[in-house]
Amino acid sequence: MSLLRKALGDADFEKVAADPVSFVRMFAREPWPYQADWLRQVTERDEAGIFTRRVAVVSTPRQNGKSTLGCWVALWKLYTGEGEEIISVALDREGAGIVLRDARQIIGRSGILSGLLDEDGLTRSEIRLRDGSHWIIRPADAQYSRGFRPSMIVYDELGWAVDRELYDALLPGMAAQPNPLMLAVSTVGPIQAGVLWELFEAAARGEPWVRLIYRTENDSPLITEAFLEAQRAQLPPHVYAREHCNLWGEGSAAFATDADWQRATADNPTLDRSPGPCYLFCDLGWVHDETAIAVATKPVEGAVAIVAQRQFRGSQAQPVSFAAVREEIEALRVTYGVSERDTQIESPQGVGLAQELGAEVLHPTAESNRARWGALYQALKAGTVKLPPDPILRRQLLTLTIQESATGWRVVDVPSIHQDRAVAVAGALYLAQQGSKRKPELRIGWL
Fold first, then answer.
1. What's the confidence (pLDDT) of residue 437?
2. Which end of the chain, C or N, has fewer beta carbons within 10 A?
3. Are 83 and 150 in contact (CB under 8 A)?
């Protein structure tokens, strides 16, 4: 029997167990109307008491009570359930501390809730009840065991997760639970990629396992128009749109959007023969970075197509074989009619290989990087580049952001997502655009 049932009696327990709003009213405060609505949507159950959607996403502008909602739902499940194992993930240690402080305050104000705690049941990262139910609250960079079998996961600011490894490790652990629930609360991220964006797409497809509550307006009575006006004057437009309108990055911060990608891959370039003359760029990696090769066609009606991609991935035990890369480049040259002067390999690793192949060496500078990224950016926006539907290339492009400073702009990648394929595509595209402007090569002799 639930400890809370014993403390409240059957009637009051049934009331708070059936309705999380009643639980919040009894132990926290009167929720605002929109918060009450969210609580009931997130925890909706069928006649058998099973959650109708095992994944719920609440995405709103900043300071609209998302983290508070996650805290309320976790406390409700902790105290009304039995044998609960709840895991709460915050973006950083400060975020985890905020969630823990909110929970501590609610528990501390209630003699009933605090009376159900285990001895030493409030620690720096855990809330534990006498019946063994517990709630672990940690930042995303903490160590999590793959042995967890959470009955509930609360992921705060999922849209800003650096990578998806933690999400992928925790979610399968709920499979053994009879009635699991995951709640993700987050303002949208800067780019249309990552786990949060995938959940948005799943909701748009009408997947029955996910519920999306998405708001672009501020519902909180604490957010005033004067405050928003001041923020609008201080923040860059794309930052204001993201933080206070909860709009996905479609502005200057995002290098490429999903719409750019869909347009570029709508007409997949496939060739049965050499399109002649083509241009090849190689971004040479050794161990951590893969070697990426891209071949681009000569512009046709203003558009360039990436007609070939090759990748080589190495490791500490077995680095990339430069001999294999050289053989592949030679084969691509024959297949696609690429000349020596239309082959470019990025230094410093590629100097020796370029000499063997008679290729041009690119010594990257801030200016050369801007030229190549700028060419790809403009082509994506203008719809003048055709790309193969490579999911890794998509992930790389959609996770790139433009960072501006006093010395000029640059393209920045997510630390956990390398940009090798995108670099190769940008390099090949730039070569094709520049090569088409050169005068034809004068050949003397019999050929």
1. 62
2. C
3. no
The total number of structural domains that make up the chain: 2
Which residue's structure tokens are 């709003």?
21
Residue of 200 and 1 predicted with greater confidence: 200
Give, in order, the Cα–Cα distances in Å from 385 to each of 36, 235, 265, 391.
48, 33, 9, 17
Contacts of 209 (CB under 8 A, 6+ apart): 53, 54, 55, 202
Helix (H) or strand (E) run with residue 112 in it: helix 111-115
CATH number at residue 275: 3.30.420.240
**Domain region containing 166:** 3-245
Q: Is 282 exposed, middle or buried (0-12, 13-18, 19+ CB in 10 A)?
A: buried
- pLDDT > 70: percent of the chain: 90
User: Is 414 domain-assigned?
Assistant: yes
Answer whether residue 254 is part of any domain: no
**pLDDT tens by residue, 68-82:** 999 999 999 999 999
Return the closest-CA partner of residue 296 out of 394, 391, 421, 431.
431
Both structure tokens of 125 = 């990262």
Q: How confident is the model at residue 416 (pLDDT cuts 50, 70, 90)?
A: low
268-313 pLDDT per residue, tens: 655 444 566 899 999 988 766 789 999 999 887 778 999 999 999 8
Q: Give the count of alpha carbons within 13 A of 60, CB side only.
A: 20
pLDDT, average across residues 343-354: 84
Of all residues in the chain, the percent with pLDDT exceeding 90 is: 60
* Inter-CA distances, 327 with 204, 293, 297, 321, 357, Å: 45, 12, 21, 10, 10
* Burial profile 101-133: b = 16 or more Cβ within 10 angstroms, e = fewer: ebbeebbeebeebeebeeeeeeeeebbbbebeb
Among 196, 211, 245, residue at a domain's last position: 245
Distances (CA, A) of 68 to 98, 102, 199: 9, 7, 21
